[in-house]
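Entry type: protein chain
Record version: 2
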Amino acid sequence: MRRAIPLLASCAALVCAVPAAARLEPVEHSGPRVHIGTFPFQTGGATRIRVVARLRLPPLTERRLALHALSGTVSRAYLRAVSEQQARAARQIRAAIPQARIGRCFQVVLNALTVSLPASQLPTLVRQSSVTKVYPSVTYTLALDRSPSIIGADVLRRATSADGTGIKIAIVDDGIDQSNPFFDPAGFSYPAGFPLGDRKYTTPKVIVARVFPGPNAGKPGRLAVDPASSFHGTHVAGIAAGDAG
């Protein structure tokens, strides 16, 4: 008897087996997973860098937590005070570092300015009385091919030879884009009794697609996947059972 998979929301089931033509390649994680300490900066020459300079007044969210609740009028008045402080800090920074350029201003979860300046002037920025801390401006990119090593799947596979062959996974989320390269159906075939659900959104890799819309879900809420807004379910399913990259 086939075991039923209970589904409570928009979801899809995926075949986790690896195609016969493919080989499992363990992904090794290099370097520490968490970096604690100081970011090194190249402070010589005319190279420009961009940093985030935190200012003295706490941001709005910290202010609200400290006082438990602030009315809309008080919050707006506080944000005006933050804006005035940021304007003074910007003038001070530009006076000390004429080459500095002030970019974005943050007020709600962080009271800070982004500052672009020559790397050699970074020590001058750090010494400004209006600045309490300087953070590097770092760009982050998706690297989902590292997920197996981050969660220890590569270690589990080496220790137990478990590679997911034959396992079906149900993802209860905002839907799965079956056309994503993470779900390449090449080399797969539907198990007995599948596909199920809305077959427009199934493949031999994504074998079930069903939706359980809530009240007032509207037309997008009746889709197994909404290409305009669904990405989290695709992301999670790719980590759990992706077969590309």
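Comment: The helical segments are 60-67, 72-96, 122-126, 147-150, 153-160, 232-241.
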